[in-house]
């Protein structure tokens, strides 16, 4: 496939995936923090198109769950009363993109709870939590990438432009950051920050933390690009005509770093999403009840959940298509930057 | 010799820099172990104050750094507030296990990555290459956290592997063969996760390095002389392609260390990872710093070993 078309296809798929997560309120049937204490650990429910007699139904239906006699978390399917899924139903309030107050949801089933991916110990719908969790994790990854790249751009171009002992100092510092296994570094800095914080504070903390720890690699790459473009003939010519340093940087040198920055972004976003996931999984990130892909997994640290409620693992698989998308995007961008391979 | 000396000096300054940086970060901390202790009604304020002065937590950062460096000379690496003992023995007991895990994983990863990458480069564009490339691509997008939890889920549901720790209860009573078997079974899962997460990058680099060399004229000449495929690949091509791979070895140690942090916590392997997490939650300052320092030492050591191998393999470095 030609790299241009590959790039567009990849961007379209990634855009679609992000669209679903951004519209989590609409695509999920419930509020992610709404508890159904009567339905703890409900297993995933399957949607059916063919009934027992083999007839096809255009509108998918499911069999509602019923609590087993004498058990608090064992269910059986009630196959005698199939419930059809309704679309564009009115349900819990939410704010689309955090702005528009709405109540319409893509699907629902009236009073019968539908748990496509099962429910957790409080009876919260894992499917809704997966979509809303994606908002937190992806936003953290994207913001942290933006932050790390801005730091990288600033420090990298400054180092290259100033040169001399200032360049030397900055690059030695970058080396220090690169010398540490970066997860340990993240942990160590997290250790010195307050532990009990509100979800919003924790979110900002993580974004700033990941962004600050990650500046070193982009800074080194950008420095090398700036160093080579600084000596181009047209830059020298512009300097000869009396162009100021900031004009040269803005007008001639920084545009050259654009493709490096884009490629780095595609590489860094999944890494930083994963950093958030890891921190939240270990209880050092975004706390309950706000869902994130990381703290959705953290219940798996209990042995009993691991043995009995395997579906708690399912929501985290949502990251995989995103990571595939970003990986392909990064390689497509790299190909474009290097020109066609021989 | 000069080259090795330079690398050693470089590593030394790196360690000093990292340790000073970590101490600088501690000044950002809004609270410490004793703040939480003073909330405990069973401990009198005088005791807390006495402990504070004893450990010097209120001193300026340079003084604390100086005392810490002095304690390294005693082989203590600072003091663990939570355990009430020097940090070094605690850290060392755990670091040994981390080292065991990562070194086994490193060796296995290279043993698998080399032949796989070479095989893939040799059959470039054909079925084996496509198979290897897509398999590594798939592994590349599955994070090690998911891999570890998935394998753990599998182990719990099938019962094929033990699900945590290094040895079973009653390990002492087993025969020596039983002990071996038990230890290997416990290591199987964490090592698998580490190998699978480090493998894709290595295989891709081996493939890239080998593909570059395989097109060279001297190899075609050697082939025309009737030298066997195996000799050609492993005696002629691999040494020529080895330079970037050896540098990669140092880098792979870092990836494995970070990966092992998560794997250890998930699979309750008694390594540095769980200790570090515990120390962070308890604000056990020196244990955190010690853990970070040890991991840096491992990483720097990995890079030094890579440099030494390069020195030994590549005459260009020895001359320059």
Characterization of the model:
- With 342 residues, chain A is mainly alpha-helical.
- Chain A has a domain at 130-338: MetI-like (MetI-like fold, Orthogonal Bundle).
- Chain A has helices at residues 3-22, 24-27, 126-162, 164-179, 182-191, 199-213, 216-230, 233-240, 245-253, 258-281, 293-297, 303-308, 319-338; strands spanning 48-50, 56-62, 65-67, 75-77, 83-84, 86-96, 100-108.
- In chain A, α1 runs antiparallel to α13 (319-338) and α3 runs antiparallel to α4.
- By secondary structure, chain B is mostly helical.
- The model of chain B has no long low-confidence stretch (mean pLDDT 80).
- Classes of the chains: A mainly alpha (342), B mainly alpha (320).
- At the A-B interface, α4, α5, α10, α12 and α13 of A face α1, α6, α7, α10 and α11 of B.
Give the integer mean of the pLDDT values of chain A. 80
Largest sheet of chain A: 3 strands, antiparallel
**Can you count the helices of chain B?**
13
* Strands side by side in the biggest sheet of chain B: 1-2
Oligomer classification: heterodimer
Helix content of chain B: over 70%
Total count of helical runs of at least 4 residues of chain A: 13
Which structural class should the secondary elements of chain B be placed in? mainly alpha
Largest interface (CB within 8 Å) is between: A-B, 42 and 47 residues
Mean pLDDT of chain B: 80
CATH fold-level name of the domain at 130-338 in chain A: MetI-like fold
Number of strands of chain A: 7
CATH architectural designation of the domain at 130-338 in chain A:
Orthogonal Bundle
Question: What is the alpha-carbon Rg of chain A in Å?
Answer: 25 Å
């Amino acid at each position: 496939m030609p790299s241009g078309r590959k790039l567009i296809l990849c961007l379209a798929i990634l855009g679609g995936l992000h669209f679903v997560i951004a519209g989590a309120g609409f695509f999920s049937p419930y509020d992610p923090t709404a508890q159904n204490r009567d339905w703890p650990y409900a297993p995933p429910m399957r949607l059916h198109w063919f009934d027992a007699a083999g007839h096809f139904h255009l509108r998918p239906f499911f069999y509602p769950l019923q609590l087993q006699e004498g058990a608090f978390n064992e269910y059986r399917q009630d196959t005698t009363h199939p419930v059809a899924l309704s679309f564009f139903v009115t349900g819990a309030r939410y704010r689309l993109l955090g702005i528009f107050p709405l109540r319409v949801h893509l699907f629902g089933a009236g009073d019968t709870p539908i748990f496509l991916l099962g429910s957790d110990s409080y009876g919260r719908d894992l499917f809704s939590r997966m979509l809303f969790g994606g908002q937190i994790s992806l936003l953290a990854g994207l913001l942290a990438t933006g932050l790390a790249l801005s730091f990288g751009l600033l420090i990298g171009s400054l180092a290259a432009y100033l040169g001399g002992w200032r360049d030397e100092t900055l690059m030695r510092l970058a080396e220090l950051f690169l010398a540490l296994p970066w997860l340990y570094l993240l942990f160590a800095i997290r250790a010195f920050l307050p532990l009990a914080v509100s979800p919003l504070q924790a979110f900002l903390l993580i974004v700033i933390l990941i962004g600050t720890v990650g500046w070193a690699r982009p800074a080194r790459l950008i420095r090398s690009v700036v160093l080579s473009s600084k000596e181009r003939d047209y830059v020298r010519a512009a300097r000869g005509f009396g162009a100021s340093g900031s004009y040269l940087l803005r007008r001639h040198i920084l545009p050259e770093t654009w493709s490096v920055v884009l490629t780095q972004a595609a590489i860094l976003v999944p890494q930083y999403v994963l950093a958030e996931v890891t921190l939240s999984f270990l209880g050092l990130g975004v706390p309950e009840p706000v869902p994130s892909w990381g703290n959705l997994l953290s219940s798996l640290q209990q042995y009993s959940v691991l043995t009995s409620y395997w579906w708690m693992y399912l929501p985290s698989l949502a990251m995989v298509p995103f990571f595939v998308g970003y990986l392909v995007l990064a390689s497509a961008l790299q190909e474009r930057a290097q020109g066609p391979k021989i | 010799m000069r080259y090795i000396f330079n690398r050693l000096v470089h590593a030394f300054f790196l360690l000093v820099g990292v340790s000073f940086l970590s101490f600088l970060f501690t000044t950002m901390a809004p609270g410490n172990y004793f703040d939480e202790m003073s909330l405990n009604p069973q401990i009198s304020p005088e005791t807390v104050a006495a402990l504070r002065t004893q450990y010097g937590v209120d001193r300026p950062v340079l003084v604390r750094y100086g005392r810490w460096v002095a304690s390294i000379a005693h082989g203590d690496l600072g003091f663990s507030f939570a355990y009430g003992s020097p940090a070094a023995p605690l850290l060392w007991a755990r670091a040994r296990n981390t080292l065991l895990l990562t070194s086994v994983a490193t060796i296995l990863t290279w043993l698998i990555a080399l032949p796989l990458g070479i095989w893939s480069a040799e059959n470039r564009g054909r079925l084996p290459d496509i198979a290897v490339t897509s398999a590594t691509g798939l592994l590349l997008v599955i994070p090690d956290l998911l891999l570890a939890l998935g394998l753990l889920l599998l182990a719990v549901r099938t019962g094929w592997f033990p699900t945590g720790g290094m040895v079973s209860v009653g390990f002492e009573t087993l025969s020596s063969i039983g002990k071996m078997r038990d230890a290997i079974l416990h290591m199987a899962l964490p090592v698998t996760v580490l190998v699978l997460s480090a493998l894709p990058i290595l295989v891709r680099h081996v493939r890239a390095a080998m593909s570059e060399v395989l097109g060279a004229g001297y190899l075609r000449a050697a082939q025309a002389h009737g030298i066997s495929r195996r000799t050609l690949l492993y005696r002629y091509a691999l040494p020529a392609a080895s330079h970037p791979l050896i540098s990669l070895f140092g880098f792979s140690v870092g990836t494995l260390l970070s990966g092992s942090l998560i794997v250890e916590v998930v699979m309750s392997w008694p390594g540095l990872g769980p200790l570090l997490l515990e120390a962070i939650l308890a604000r056990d300052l020196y244990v955190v710093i010690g853990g970070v320092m040890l991991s840096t030492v491992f990483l720097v050591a990995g890079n030094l070993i890579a440099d030494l191998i390069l020195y030994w393999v590549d005459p260009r470095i020895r001359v320059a």
